[in-house]
Design a protein that fits this description.
Layout (H helix, E strand, L loop, with lengths): L4 H7 L6 E4 L3 E5 L7 E7 L14 H17 L7 E4 L15 E5 L1
Bound molecules: adenosine monophosphate and zinc ion.
Zinc ion binds next to helix 1.
């Protein structure tokens, strides 16, 4: 596998402003925020994209949504509203091939 920036962040080899972490997922601020609050929810397991999600990831996929909700609460955008985005593949503009959910609001 070529070097993965999000695996590096998870391993502590690259810096990021981490705002949530548990045994299955991590969340940190996007380094180029496009909204006042812009965080990324990332599974610890390297899954390249939504296209690579398997049936055994069903619980993990649900967990990522709950972590996104938790991040929205922490960042005080739960009530005002926020958007979740999962860019998948070239035409969608996916840059980092480690599955992540954008949490955007504020
Ligand atoms: P995409 O793959 O299109 O969903 O976009 C990847 C997102 O990751 C972009 O919004 C980048 O700004 C963000 N990003 C890339 N590298 C880092 C990093 N080292 N720390 C935080 N965010 C990053
Ligand atoms: Zn990775």
């Amino acid at each position: 596998m070529t070097r993965c920036i999000f695996c590096d962040i998870i391993a502590g080899r690259s810096p990021a402003k981490i705002i949530y972490r548990d045994e299955r997922a991590i969340a940190f601020y996007d380094r180029s925020p496009r909204t006042p609050v812009h965080a990324l929810v990332v599974p610890l397991e390297h899954i390249a994209s939504l296209n690579d999600l398997m049936p055994e990831h069903e619980a993990l996929a649900g967990h990522l949504l709950l972590v996104a909700q938790q991040v929205a609460c922490q960042e005080n955008i739960a009530a005002s509203g926020y958007r979740l985005v999962i860019n998948t593949g070239r035409a969608a503009g996916q840059i980092v091939y480690h599955l992540h959910v954008h949490v955007m609001g504020g």
